[in-house]
Structures
1.
Amino acid sequence: MTKTPLVKPEFSAKRTDPYGPPTIHRQLQVESPVTELDWPETRRKVWTVAKYEDVRAMLGDTRFSSDRSRPEHPAHVAYDEVSHQGAIIEMDPPEHSVLRGRIMNEFTVKKINALRPRIEQFVNESIDAMLASGNEGDLVHLLSLPVPSLVIADLLDVPEKDHGFFQKNAEIFADGNLPQDERKAASRAIADYIAVLVDERTENPGDDIISRQIQAGSTRQEAIGLGHLLLIAGHETTSNMISLVVMTLLDRPDLRQQLEDDPKLIRGAVEELLRYFTIAEPGGLRLALEDIELGGQTIPAGSTVFGLANTANRDPDVFPNPDEIDFKRGARNHIAFGFGPHQCLGQNVARLELIIVLEILFERLPNLKLNVPVSELRFKEYSNFGIHELPVSW
Ligand code: HEM
């Protein structure tokens, strides 16, 4: 990469290149790995952290707070007092540790692997619907959005008759093209729906996550907040990754060929593409609770701090030739699922969904192709990175 000096260092979280972090973030990694910049989009100053080891140190240190109920927290704008209870992603210890401890064993590898037949069914049913509908369409709406919402509905044991309602509202909530009010209404509809499940299962406990959370001591509101968080955290993220993985393989026939020649590479491919796209970068936003030494700098108490996970996952000291997609790299040490106490609880669910999509999609639709070049796709620039639509034919 050519090195031009930073003329007026200003931070932007906007993603400009679908295939990589903004140039300024890469320059920061080389020239000022831990530094304070203006962040005009938020009218704040922000400390950015760009080297892999520093981002991990920061995410692993609870003096960098995730507690959005604090008015000084950079994500306080999105804080909602009601859904906060149970939303472990926006809590600090000891509250966070108690609630996370209560849900942890729902996400063991064994439990997640047991989801395989259901996920295969959801992927196959989505492809059946694609085939029944003709020979072209938008893969985001045909596959990427429905599969993760059905998986979360399944995790919460949402009755099959309500999957349509759940899926429709999950899709509206995840659609960044829609007005904010419409998305909020969909989010509330889901929370209200989960509240009904919580009340029913408090009366008549079943063999499901919600019932077990209530039996383990969760309050009504905590159980609602947790069910809601699983959807918020697990739907759009996984959906975006499904679209990006499929897009990459359609755009790079050489990579697709590698997987066809050796399907055992699928796991490594999923890991490498998680690293490569690192779609949930805003997960690295924190508030410094005290003066903290990091990367040779002192970050003062009260500072907004942004761990640039996307840039960290391209750190050449950890990932040689970081801009190359290499399915044999062994990239499992990436931080696309975060790191430390808040590391993604649903990561093995997301991995399994991606693996199953790759196992089934190209086998069932061998002629799948992009209808427009990647340069014409509309990418999401903020928040979770992804594609608005992926027009394909099969
Ligand atoms: C490719 C898909 C996914 C990506 C890239 C992703 C990424 C992340 C990241 C970066 C964090 C850490 C946020 C932070 O440090 O503040 C996180 C947390 C979390 N994720 Fe995921 N996630 C994905 C899928 C899922 C799924 C499928 C679920 C649930 C079924 C899920 C549930 C959660 C939860 C509950 C947390 C909060 C954990 C805590 O605060 O203790 N995620 N995720």
Note: The two ends are 38 Å apart (CA to CA).
2.
Amino acid sequence: MDKERLVKAVADAGVVGAGGGGFPAAVKLAADFEHYIANGAECEPLLHKDIELMSRYPEQIAEGLAMVRDLAGAQAAYFASKEKYAAIWERINPYLDKYDIVPKFLEDIYPAGDEFEVVWRVLGRAIPPGGIPLAVGAAVNNVETIYNIRRALDGEPVITKFLTVTGEVERPFTAPVPIGTEFSELIEFAKPKIADFVVIEGGPMMGKIVPPDEVVKKTTAGILILPPEHKLVRHRTMPIEYAVRIAASACMQCQSCTDLCPRHLLGHPIEPHKIMRSMAMPLSMPVEWMTAAMLCSECGVCEQFACPMGLSPRKINAELKRKFRENGVKFQPPGGETVPMPEREFRKIPSARLAERLGILDYYHIRPEFIPALPEPGRVKLVLRQGAGAPSVPVVKVGEMVQKGQLVASAPPNSIGANIHSPIDGTVASTVDAITIER
Ligand code: SF4
Ligand code: SF4
């Protein structure tokens, strides 16, 4: 097998970034890179899906990592995970030795899993502002993505997603779940302790509030059940107009948000306190202060950890990014070398301290039960946009019988996207906006 066949096998199987970004893996692997990195940091508190994958499938992950390195013509492969996962290291070390993969130990801090952080920690290379890992010769994939790539090389399509369901539930669990399963089925299985709750898809830092009838996608890493009055819910439901108004009136310009901003500390010209100041005096501040919002990773450190006033620079940055994108405004890279600030070594955010600040300590020390197989759903709804790129194009019709693993929507022609396969045997009930398959 060569690189061309690697890329084709990964594209055929519909592999996308499983860590949250959802970028089609085949597109990433088609590029030239010297260093290939497995990201096993899983830095969002409460999520355990990567921990379970690394514990249970160390050989497949190491094999996938080595196969991509060799087929893509990279010089070296690295496995990066938290040093504290002693049991995982014990299991994977023999395979790292066997395949000549370099182990890299990460600290238990947030956001250790941001790929800008991972590349800096692993290679000592700083990705420039607005850049991607390829800018410094690296490609990074989440460990679940690599597991899926390994399976793709055996012709197995992506039809399940590892995820954790936790929070105010009696039975927190981690499991591989058929893509398209409705969240409500998984929540019911986890047995909520409260009748009135809010559902967050993803982790407590970067997850979004969704309705209970949301469905599992190739990017779903977690389902968090919280009481409506929880502070993580309050921040997320704050209307943007209100966030802007209090930014203008209550920001005391203490700079704590900038001092702790991980991207600022990596040497990127983003200073969230200046963006907040611009909200109060938009016409008298340099426009670059605001366009720097495009460098925000939306990690949430400023909002959930740094700001003593409970303000939300992240929300404002997200809105500015949306508006700039709509109006075709581009960030102008400053040029020159990107040099991380020496202070970043003294401004780390330990995960346990973050969990305490987020008000999730009650759930933080629980390791959700691993369930190897849940009861198969009677119906799946496969949304046509499973990650980054354009929606996939259905290749099946209503009434058609499909088999588990069969292609039901293909990557859009001439644009970035991914194939979608059926996770169950059944009959196609709808192809409008999503492909619904019933048993
Ligand atoms: S969310 Fe806040 S802390 Fe995170 S990158 Fe954006 S401005 Fe910086
Ligand atoms: S931390 Fe809060 S109060 Fe301080 S500058 Fe940033 S937004 Fe303003």
Note: Residues 261-263, 270, 272, 296-302, 313-314, 317 surround iron/sulfur cluster (ligand 1) (CB under 6 Å).
